[in-house]
Amino acid sequence: MNAAGPTRILLADDHALVRRGVRLILESEPDLTVVAEAGDGAEAVALARTHEIDLAILDVAMPRMTGLQAAREISRRPAAPRILLLSMYDNDQYFFEALKAGASGYVLKSVADRDLVEACRAAMRGEPFIYPDALTALMREYLQRARRGERLPGSILTERESEIVKLIAEGRSSKEIAALLVISIKTVERHRANILQKLEMRDRTELTRYAIRTGLIES
Description:
Rossmann fold
């Protein structure tokens, strides 16, 4: 991450006009700057290797290599940048595939002027960005799993740790969690560190995926 200046962004979309529009949205903000542009997924992967970037914004549908494929490749790198998927498709499957590919969020092009900047900032805070309709999709998948009688795997987390994961995934701060559970902030942070170590995860985004996958978030 680039603590000394604005978030350095790699922007990939096969339409030059779309890239130009997205770039204008991003660079109207002082904390965001586009340092590289790609016209397809393969070029994005190559640029991610040669440029210092903090965040990759990838169009889902691109030639040579899709945004989802590029996200998987980029997320495998040591010290990988955060990733957002940009799409014109309001599609549950694309959303879930984006999470599986290592993305922090999925932004619809139709509302990029409203959502993209906040999605970038959320990603850089280590938080997921979930657009409203996707919450409905998450609930639907959870209910389908319940109807099929699927059981959640036994957790290696304690009951208190699972409770804290749920609150973290819901976007609660350490201060809020401490107040809700009537424990100190230092205790919350200690639990959080233990949880990340147990699950071999690094941040809130990965904890949120875990919470979704294991059913801790129900809506």
